[in-house]
Amino acid sequence: MAGCAGFVHVSSLAPSPLMTNAEEMIREAVEGTELALRFAAAAGSVRRVVVTCTMGSICGSQRAADPEHLWSEADHNDEPSTAWFMSKVAQEAKIWELAEKYKDKFSVCTVHTAHTFGELLPGQPVTSSMLLLQELARGKVTCFLFAMCEVADLAAVHVAGLERTEAAGQRYMMSSADQVSSLEVAEWAAAAGASGVDLAAWAADEAVQKLAPKRPTANNRKVIALLGRPLVPNAKCIQRGVASLIENGLL
Asked: What pTM does this model have?
């Protein structure tokens, strides 16, 4: 890391049904982050650090008190309900602890991403959000609601975090303003060429038909101001993800 002026820490655990040990997940997330930032401090040249976090350390119990609440950077997950959420909350706490410890060496900002779709890198394994999209594109019918972002937008926010002085000490929520349903994702995937999607099966699923996305679900004006432009629309996020899966022979 010596000679580098900026450092982006993107490596962390992805959610998996196999990961249920909260203590182990928290340890890995916290110790991995601590190790990365300690090496950044030791390099002597690093002046900016950007750490990829998730919406898992933002979305908490706020909507229990106010169903109309819009997620924003001011929110913190005060009731992490899974081992993975617990690890994300603990990881962010460690980030800001270290930001204070090393404030004479570098500034830190965090980027909190929703489900992320878009172009895969050559040879990149299909995991997390893109695995979900691949399963839907292959014909799986499932019932859920979520917000999203596009991977190129996410990359641009990381670069802005390194380059823009106003990003120092800030949290940025990388999320669409609107929530979407798995039905909408299936429809967009089919329109993008995912031949495995059976829209008749989706139409026949009563639970899917009852899905009611919250719109808006988040206040994302802060990250839009940082980029100086709108985020990629949700439908295009899915279209780009499907196109990449097809191009890479994964559909």
From this structure: 0.94
